[in-house]
Design brief:
The chain is an alpha+beta fold and 158 residues long. It has one domain (5-157). It has helices at 26-36, 40-48, 80-84, 101-112, and strands at residues 5-10, 14-20, 52-54, 78-79, 91-94, 116-121, 126-131, 152-153. Strand 6 and strand 7 (126-131) form a beta hairpin.
């Protein structure tokens, strides 16, 4: 079973968001976003891929690396558009942060029927994470104090 997530980038006026199919957990997508996509440029490159099957350390294969949807390289993100020739899907919306955390998180979660929402805030150069349900039962025991529909710096867990 997969744990869907939405990955988004905002500059404070607009937001671009994509779907992630596999391993949206903090220990999966959260760790990779925190460790490998820690700048505005890297976050934007990831969003440009559109919907993702699997998030990995590299946004694209290095020269000479073999990679495809059916035979993915273990280090390379698998994207539906680039790797399976599906239509490019990037959701563009106004930044809804002024409407409050709950509405913004719910709106972004609805894009992917997601449990986890990851937002790179370009103004602060940091990843935020929100969840639509309790963090209780999460794979991370330190999530027990986190509330749903609230943004938290992703760095709180790493």
């Amino acid at each position: 079973m997969s744990t869907h997530a939405t990955i988004a980038v905002t500059d404070g006026t607009k937001c671009r968001a994509i779907y992630l199919h596999w391993d949206g957990y903090l220990s999966g997508a959260g760790a990779i976003l925190h460790d490998y996509y820690d700048t505005k440029e890297k976050a934007r490159q990831l969003i440009q891929l559109g919907g993702l099957s699997v998030l990995k350390e590299l946004v694209a294969p290095n020269p000479g690396m073999s990679h495809s949807f059916d035979m993915p390289n273990e280090l390379v993100t698998v994207a539906y558009h680039r790797d399976r020739n599906e239509p490019l899907e990037i959701n563009e919306l106004s930044d809804l942060s002024i409407s409050g955390d709950k509405k913004f998180i719910q709106h972004l979660a609805d894009i992917s029927n997601a449990e986890y929402v990851y937002l790179f805030d370009e103004r602060k150069e940091q990843w935020l994470v929100g969840k639509t349900s309790d963090f209780v039962g999460s794979e991370r025991t330190d999530c027990l104090k986190a509330n749903p529909f609230t943004w938290y710096p992703l760095s709180n867990w790493f």
